[in-house]
Write a structure and sequence with these properties.
two-stranded antiparallel sheet, 8 helices, 9 strands, about 35% helix, globular
């Protein structure tokens, strides 16, 4: 099992078990806790091909940027990721929902529009960007339908265009209805973190592999039982341009040291270096 597949499986099991314990204790966790934990656990791998940087400054709708970089071929791709956590304290699991999915309340969906626009703007500038959502769920959340190949379904991902389309479709004059926030309304578009990463080859996935995986999954995402979702013709694409800050991170690497005091990132950032 590759380091990425091993991490994705282990981290998903960790999230699921700890959120399940929190649920049983009547404690609602926050997504920022688990985004920070993901960065920490990636750092603890002490793998010079995985660089993790935290930031206190948030300038887009995304919580994290995941950069996949191959310095040999100069290929790169960025998955800009927005995190949400399931609200799981209701006794009936059918009522569990993502309270902040259509953030903010005074302008439902603005965050999702920012996430999508952020990706579009950077692609127009010649960079490879694509929006995604990551969801943190307790282990007792219903299983992802028809997706049982990989263990660990507590951390799931959904195409950002699919989520943005879901939000815009269900907004009403009075806001965003609770039924559209529920786990059951979104689970049809989910893929587990292990399935997303373990489907790539051993080692660190290349930009081309991640792009291929995203574009393949676009055709599989579904909401509900019957509705195919194809909200946007936007396709993920590999780029051969790289922001100077990301290039600096890669060039400054030394073994087991993945940070430098002079590196400043506007979002929490993880760089996965392949091709070595």
């Amino acid at each position: 099992m590759s380091i990425m597949c091993n991490f994705a499986t282990w981290f998903s099991l960790l999230v699921g078990n700890e959120l399940e314990e929190a649920r049983l204790l009547g404690h609602q966790s926050r997504e920022t806790t688990w985004t920070d934990r993901m960065l920490l656990e990636l750092k603890k791998l002490r793998d010079p091909r995985i660089l993790a940087f935290a930031s206190n400054e948030k300038v887009t709708g995304g919580d994290m940027d995941w950069w996949f970089v191959n310095p040999v071929s100069n290929a790169s791709f960025c998955l800009t990721v927005q995190a949400k956590i399931l609200h799981y304290l209701q006794q009936n699991p059918d009522l569990w929902h993502y309270e902040e999915i259509a953030h903010p309340r005074d302008d439902p969906g603005r965050q999702s529009r920012m996430l999508v626009d952020h990706a579009r703007d950077h692609c127009a500038a010649g960079l490879g960007y694509y929006p995604y959502y990551i969801f943190y769920n307790p282990s007792s959340a219903p299983a992802i339908p028809l997706r049982t190949a990989w263990p660990g379904e507590a951390v799931t991902l959904v195409d950002g265009f699919v989520v943005a389309d879901h939000i815009s479709t269900h907004i009403t004059a009075s806001g965003f209805p609770i039924p559209a926030k529920r786990y059951s309304a979104l689970v049809g578009g989910m893929v587990s973190l292990p399935e997303f990463l373990c489907s790539c080859v051993a080692g660190i996935p290349s930009p081309e592999e991640i792009v291929g995986r995203i574009n393949d999954l676009r055709d599989e995402f579904r909401f509900g039982d019957e509705t195919d979702v194809d909200p946007d013709p936007f396709q993920a694409r590999v780029s051969h341009a790289l922001p100077s800050a990301i290039r600096h991170m890669v060039e400054r690497r030394t073994r087991y040291i993945d940070h430098a005091e002079d590196i400043v990132v506007p979002r929490d950032t993880v760089v996965f270096v392949s091709g070595e």
